[in-house]
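Fill in residues.
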């Protein structure tokens, strides 16, 4: 009769623990409830929950009665064997068992007599941790104790799994907020409208692969007759490259405000990025100065290319390669004179990122320079922004069902016909 009453009491206590664990407590509070309930039902002195650190392949004490945080190799001792074999281990006499690690008792001054060790198994048989119960007040742990301990261990595994999922969701939401802020900052630095320069029409587009991207473009008026054109691509995708892109834009505007020439701005920004960026990061960048009086464009292209120049009078194209290495790659000691292009009536300058040129279709064929040239040649009567939109439509059509693999940036400058 007393055995039946004991089982009923144990069942009630397990159900009570299950109910409590459904409440939104923090992980340590919930695991402490499991340990205390197990000790109470089994009439045991101490309980410990180890969590499995997969990266370090160690078991770490998360909750322990009078125990400090401790890490042990996941293949050592009775706890390690339970974790490795995924089986309950009932040890009636700890010091008679060669697997028992006496060092923990020596460090704590506690004398372990008997113990139950139960693996905590999560989704798809993954190891979450180990529950260990020490020193039954009277006698040793029996079959009934094993049953109860396994039931509570199962509850602990559910709790830990739920907590980990919750932590992942919270971390993802926090990252989404951070990305959203970075995106707002980046989008906020893009031109709100196309610039005004006598005799010219401009168009632009930016389509990042992720929520943020490493591409950038900007227009900076220099007096009434000149316009500085910036276009770049920071290596990678996401927050880091987005911030690098924003940094280049900010440094350029400061340099121009201080009266730096085209070449001086390029050199100073390059050298500053060499100091600021990690060795495996750099920014390709086009720095160009367009003069509406002379219709001359002078530019440096650090790793950015090809730079398209469509000659309306002949229908020919120049595809200018990069003139020097990318920004931030190495200190600039010999930049050389800028490249010069003369814009005749109807000519189109294209600053187009490799996300356009290298966009592949389902057969692995890239959009390429020819894809861009087809749009420009067939749309000579269109305005600059209309041409940008046509390029975007053409590259999407070319790609079909293939998703965008790289950031896309397009900047077109068209000299109006007189």
């Amino acid at each position: 009769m007393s055995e039946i009453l004991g089982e009923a009491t144990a069942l009630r206590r397990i159900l009570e623990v299950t109910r409590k664990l459904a409440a939104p407590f923090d992980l340590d509070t919930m695991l402490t409830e499991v340990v205390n309930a197990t000790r109470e039902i089994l009439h045991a002195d101490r309980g410990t929950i180890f969590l499995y650190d997969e990266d370090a392949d160690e078991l770490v004490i998360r909750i322990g009665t009078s125990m400090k945080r401790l890490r042990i190799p996941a293949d050592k001792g009775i706890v390690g064997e339970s974790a490795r074999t995924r089986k309950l281990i009932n040890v009636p006499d700890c010091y008679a068992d060669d697997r028992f690690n006496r060092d923990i008792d020596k460090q704590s001054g506690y004398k372990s007599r008997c113990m139950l060790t139960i693996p905590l198994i999560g989704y798809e048989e993954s190891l979450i941790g180990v529950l260990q119960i020490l020193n039954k007040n009277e006698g040793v742990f029996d079959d009934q104790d094993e049953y109860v301990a396994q039931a509570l261990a199962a509850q602990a595994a559910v709790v830990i799994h739920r907590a980990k999922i919750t932590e992942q969701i919270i971390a993802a939401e926090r990252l989404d907020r951070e990305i959203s802020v970075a995106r707002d900052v980046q989008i906020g630095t893009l031109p709100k409208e196309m610039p005004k320069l006598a005799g010219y029409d401009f168009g632009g587009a930016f389509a990042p692969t992720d929520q943020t991207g490493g591409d950038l473009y900007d227009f900076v008026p220099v007096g009434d007759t000149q316009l500085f054109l910036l276009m770049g691509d920071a290596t990678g995708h996401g927050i880091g490259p987005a911030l690098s892109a924003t940094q280049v834009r900010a440094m350029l505007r400061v340099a121009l405000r201080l009266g730096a020439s085209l070449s001086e701005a390029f050199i100073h920004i390059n050298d500053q990025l060499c100091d600021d960026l990690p060795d495996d990061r750099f920014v390709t960048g086009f720095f160009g100065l367009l003069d509406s009086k002379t219709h001359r464009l002078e530019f440096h292209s650090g790793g950015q290319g090809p730079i398209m120049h469509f000659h309306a009078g002949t229908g020919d194209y120049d595809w200018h390669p990069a003139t020097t290495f990318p920004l931030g790659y190495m200190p600039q000691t010999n930049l050389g004179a800028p490249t010069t292009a003369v814009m005749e009536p109807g000519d189109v300058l294209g600053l187009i990122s490799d996300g356009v040129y290298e966009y592949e279709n389902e057969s692995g064929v890239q959009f390429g320079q020819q894809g861009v040239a087809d749009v420009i040649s067939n749309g000579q009567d269109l305005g600059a922004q209309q041409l940008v939109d046509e390029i975007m439509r053409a590259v999407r059509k070319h790609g079909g069902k293939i998703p965008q693999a790289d950031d896309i940036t397009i900047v077109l400058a068209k000299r109006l016909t007189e």
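The chain has two domains: 2-165, 180-415.
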